[in-house]
Amino acid sequence: MSKQLRALVVAGGISQAALIEELKSQGIYTILADKNPKAYAVPFADAFYPVSTLDIEAIKQLAIDEKVDMVLTACADQVLLVVAKVSEELGLPCYIDYKTAVLVSDKQYMKAIFEQNGIPTAKHVIMAEMDEEKIKAFEYPLIVKPVDCYSSRGVRRVENIEELKAAFIDAVNLSRTKTAIVEEFCEGIELTVDIYVEDGKAHVLTTSVSDKIADKDRFVIYRTKNPAPISEEIAKKVEVACQQIADAFGIKNSPMLVQLITNGKRIDVLEFCARTGGCIKYQLIKKASGFDVVKAVADLTLGKKPHVGQLASESKYIVNTFLYCAPGVFDRVEGLEKLKEDKVITEYSVFAHKGRKFTEITCSGDRVCSFTIQGDNVEDLNKKSEFALKNITVIDQDGNDILRRDLVTEVEF
């Protein structure tokens, strides 16, 4: 009888829960590490340890103690860095080596390689301390962000030097390396491109666009729409840029996420990482392309060879809507299961745990829940969205409905 394989999954989000389910479907014993004992994926794993996902030595020791055959994660770039480091030191399989993981997880290295390889990107500078001389030729508005954070934490749009100085301090304080990037704001629509690189060939799986909460300086997503409304000319430029990135970073077999801006004529790459989109993006990708990126991560780690075949979408339009709430202590969400039974929505997820205290909305980590709608025309999408919003309630500990319906606008493509 062969020995049962053991996997250590690092980070306990919804995408890691999907990874755990995939591993268990292949007969693998799963161990989850996350600092939060109430993390979403905790109930899915065979065993759980409250260990920080960014503590390399602690993750390494846990891997040794549990005698695991692999350490892996999904949809988390900073965690991927830890996974690659631990896997390399312990001689365990990983689809990306540590050196490459460093390059794709730190915007400082990333931007330098973009410039060296002619990959279009915004004018920028990276600093540990504010130096006005370095940005004197820049035109406002500017974007400030930590070089090594995710979930839009610390990303701010600024209109003048006073706002820049304040945002820069916040970004540096959030950065693990205490550095921030300042770049010119590019006008246009922001595209998120999910890719799978197979034998060095970058296959575009989905190109989506996000709607963000109306806020002049923050970038909190409340909706992701597929497909993005772009011309064939821009789609081709996106494909070329994605291949350039895969080539420049030596990525051979890996999921890849590229974020860029287009004004309809040109594109500017903002950043990328060697993972798929976070949260429930893996669901959208599978629905829109037929390719399972979470399964691909598991298979790559197990030495199997994922193959991108003919891509096909379940419907013309696929929309993920993320819901937020007013300040309060979360108790439960009602209405989602009935909406799915009635086929108004096709998927839903609840991210918040009972007792979580919500204050202001600052990043995507403040999401309460989500739902997916699909259809072949925009009118149908809006009918479903409107009906869903009327029939979903987010209840706080005092029995009040604290759902912020006002943040969700009409669906447009």
Structure report:
- Helix 3 (77-90) runs antiparallel to helix 4 (98-105).
- Helix 1 (14-25) links the parallel strand 1 and strand 2.
- Strands 13-12-9-10-11-14-18-16 form an 8-stranded antiparallel beta sheet. A 4-stranded parallel beta sheet has the order 3-2-1-4, sandwiched between helices. A 4-stranded antiparallel beta sheet has the order 5-8-6-7, with helices on both faces.
- The longest helix has 17 residues, at 232-248.
- The protein has 4 domains: 6-94, Rossmann fold (3-Layer(aba) Sandwich); 123-184, 2-Layer Sandwich (Dna Ligase, domain 1); 189-301, D-amino Acid Aminotransferase, Chain A, domain 1 (2-Layer Sandwich); 317-407, 2-Layer Sandwich (D-amino Acid Aminotransferase, Chain A, domain 1).
- The protein is an alpha+beta fold and 413 residues long.
- It has 11 helices and 19 strands.
- The mean pLDDT is 92.
- 30% of the residues lie in helices and 26% in strands.
- The termini are far apart.
Query: Mean of the pLDDT scores?
Result: 92
Oligomeric description of these chains:
single chain
| Total count of domains | 4
- What is the β-strand count? 19
Q: Which structural category fits the helices and strands?
A: alpha+beta
The helix count comes to 11
Question: Could you give me the name of the CATH homologous superfamily of the largest domain?
Answer: ATP-grasp fold, B domain
Q: Strand sequence of the main sheet, in spatial order? A: 13-12-9-10-11-14-18-16
N-to-C series of helices and strands:
EHEEHEHHHEEEHEEEEHEEHHEEHEEEHE
Largest beta-sheet details: 8 strands, antiparallel
Q: Which overall shape is indicated by the principal axes computed on the Cα atoms?
A: globular
